[in-house]
Amino acid sequence: MPAENDQRPARGRRAVPALRVLAVDTDAAFLTAVKRVVESGRCRVDCAASAAEAVAYLERNRYDLVIADVEMPELEARALYARLEEQLMEGMRLLFLAAEPPQGELAAFLDECRLPCLSKPLHLRRFLDKLDDLLLLATQAPEEE
After folding, report:
1. Dihedrals φ, ψ of 141, to 5°?
2. N or C terminus of the chain with fewer C-beta within 10 Å?
Protein backbone atom coordinates (compact mmCIF):
# COMPACT_ATOMS: atom_id res chain seq x y z
CA MET A 1 0.00 0.00 0.00
CA PRO A 2 1.53 3.37 -1.01
CA ALA A 3 2.38 5.99 1.58
CA GLU A 4 -0.14 8.80 2.10
CA ASN A 5 2.15 11.41 0.58
CA ASP A 6 3.05 9.25 -2.44
CA GLN A 7 2.25 11.43 -5.48
CA ARG A 8 2.36 8.59 -8.02
CA PRO A 9 -0.91 7.85 -9.79
CA ALA A 10 -2.76 4.72 -8.77
CA ARG A 11 -2.33 1.73 -11.10
CA GLY A 12 -4.43 2.20 -14.21
CA ARG A 13 -4.79 5.98 -13.74
CA ARG A 14 -2.82 8.59 -15.63
CA ALA A 15 -1.21 11.50 -13.85
CA VAL A 16 -3.13 14.73 -14.39
CA PRO A 17 -0.81 17.38 -15.81
CA ALA A 18 -0.44 20.55 -13.78
CA LEU A 19 -2.57 23.46 -14.91
CA ARG A 20 -0.55 26.36 -16.33
CA VAL A 21 -1.17 29.87 -15.01
CA LEU A 22 0.42 33.15 -16.13
CA ALA A 23 0.32 36.07 -13.67
CA VAL A 24 0.99 39.53 -15.15
CA ASP A 25 1.56 42.60 -12.95
CA THR A 26 4.23 45.28 -12.56
CA ASP A 27 4.39 44.79 -8.78
CA ALA A 28 7.01 42.08 -8.06
CA ALA A 29 5.85 41.56 -4.46
CA PHE A 30 2.27 41.10 -5.64
CA LEU A 31 3.42 38.57 -8.28
CA THR A 32 5.31 36.62 -5.63
CA ALA A 33 2.22 36.53 -3.41
CA VAL A 34 -0.02 35.42 -6.29
CA LYS A 35 2.48 32.71 -7.25
CA ARG A 36 2.58 31.38 -3.68
CA VAL A 37 -1.20 31.34 -3.38
CA VAL A 38 -1.93 29.83 -6.80
CA GLU A 39 0.92 27.37 -7.07
CA SER A 40 0.03 23.98 -5.73
CA GLY A 41 0.30 20.38 -6.76
CA ARG A 42 -2.11 21.11 -9.60
CA CYS A 43 -0.84 24.51 -10.83
CA ARG A 44 2.39 25.77 -12.33
CA VAL A 45 2.69 29.57 -12.30
CA ASP A 46 4.83 31.81 -14.50
CA CYS A 47 5.12 35.49 -13.59
CA ALA A 48 5.59 38.41 -15.96
CA ALA A 49 6.39 41.91 -14.69
CA SER A 50 6.09 43.65 -18.06
CA ALA A 51 4.03 43.51 -21.23
CA ALA A 52 7.04 42.28 -23.22
CA GLU A 53 7.67 39.48 -20.73
CA ALA A 54 3.99 38.49 -20.79
CA VAL A 55 3.95 38.39 -24.60
CA ALA A 56 7.10 36.24 -24.61
CA TYR A 57 5.54 33.76 -22.19
CA LEU A 58 2.32 33.65 -24.23
CA GLU A 59 4.29 32.93 -27.41
CA ARG A 60 6.19 30.05 -25.79
CA ASN A 61 3.52 28.40 -23.63
CA ARG A 62 -0.12 27.39 -23.54
CA TYR A 63 -1.93 28.54 -20.39
CA ASP A 64 -5.16 27.43 -18.73
CA LEU A 65 -5.54 30.76 -16.94
CA VAL A 66 -4.04 34.23 -17.31
CA ILE A 67 -4.30 36.59 -14.32
CA ALA A 68 -3.51 40.17 -15.35
CA ASP A 69 -3.69 43.68 -14.02
CA VAL A 70 -6.43 45.43 -15.99
CA GLU A 71 -4.20 48.49 -16.48
CA MET A 72 -0.92 46.79 -17.36
CA PRO A 73 1.33 49.34 -19.08
CA GLU A 74 1.59 48.61 -22.83
CA LEU A 75 -0.86 45.70 -22.54
CA GLU A 76 -4.28 47.05 -21.65
CA ALA A 77 -7.27 44.76 -21.18
CA ARG A 78 -8.67 44.99 -24.74
CA ALA A 79 -5.26 44.30 -26.30
CA LEU A 80 -4.67 41.28 -24.08
CA TYR A 81 -8.15 39.94 -24.82
CA ALA A 82 -7.59 40.37 -28.58
CA ARG A 83 -4.24 38.57 -28.35
CA LEU A 84 -5.82 35.65 -26.45
CA GLU A 85 -9.21 35.49 -28.20
CA GLU A 86 -8.52 32.24 -30.08
CA GLN A 87 -7.16 30.52 -26.97
CA LEU A 88 -10.10 31.81 -24.91
CA MET A 89 -12.43 30.10 -27.41
CA GLU A 90 -10.49 26.88 -26.77
CA GLY A 91 -10.94 26.96 -22.99
CA MET A 92 -8.29 29.31 -21.63
CA ARG A 93 -9.62 31.62 -18.92
CA LEU A 94 -8.73 35.24 -18.17
CA LEU A 95 -9.01 36.97 -14.79
CA PHE A 96 -8.39 40.69 -14.47
CA LEU A 97 -7.36 42.46 -11.27
CA ALA A 98 -7.91 46.18 -10.70
CA ALA A 99 -6.77 48.72 -8.11
CA GLU A 100 -9.99 50.66 -8.73
CA PRO A 101 -13.34 49.24 -9.85
CA PRO A 102 -13.50 49.48 -13.67
CA GLN A 103 -15.56 52.40 -14.98
CA GLY A 104 -17.04 53.52 -18.29
CA GLU A 105 -15.81 51.81 -21.45
CA LEU A 106 -13.60 49.37 -19.55
CA ALA A 107 -16.48 48.21 -17.36
CA ALA A 108 -18.71 47.87 -20.43
CA PHE A 109 -16.01 45.85 -22.23
CA LEU A 110 -15.56 43.47 -19.26
CA ASP A 111 -19.34 43.01 -18.97
CA GLU A 112 -19.80 42.49 -22.72
CA CYS A 113 -17.05 39.85 -22.85
CA ARG A 114 -18.12 38.34 -19.51
CA LEU A 115 -14.62 38.72 -18.09
CA PRO A 116 -14.20 38.56 -14.31
CA CYS A 117 -12.38 41.38 -12.53
CA LEU A 118 -11.46 41.37 -8.83
CA SER A 119 -10.47 44.47 -6.90
CA LYS A 120 -7.11 44.87 -5.19
CA PRO A 121 -6.28 44.35 -2.44
CA LEU A 122 -7.57 40.84 -2.98
CA HIS A 123 -9.76 39.15 -0.41
CA LEU A 124 -8.06 35.74 -0.18
CA ARG A 125 -11.22 33.61 0.08
CA ARG A 126 -12.86 35.41 -2.85
CA PHE A 127 -9.68 35.08 -4.94
CA LEU A 128 -9.38 31.34 -4.20
CA ASP A 129 -13.07 30.76 -4.99
CA LYS A 130 -12.71 32.58 -8.32
CA LEU A 131 -9.55 30.58 -9.13
CA ASP A 132 -11.35 27.32 -8.40
CA ASP A 133 -14.24 28.34 -10.67
CA LEU A 134 -12.00 29.44 -13.53
CA LEU A 135 -9.61 26.48 -13.32
CA LEU A 136 -12.53 24.05 -13.23
CA LEU A 137 -13.96 25.70 -16.36
CA ALA A 138 -10.55 25.64 -18.04
CA THR A 139 -10.38 21.86 -17.65
CA GLN A 140 -13.79 21.35 -19.28
CA ALA A 141 -14.31 21.26 -23.02
CA PRO A 142 -15.98 24.51 -24.24
CA GLU A 143 -19.23 22.69 -25.13
CA GLU A 144 -19.51 21.28 -21.56
CA GLU A 145 -20.02 24.74 -20.02
Report:
1. -65, 145
2. N
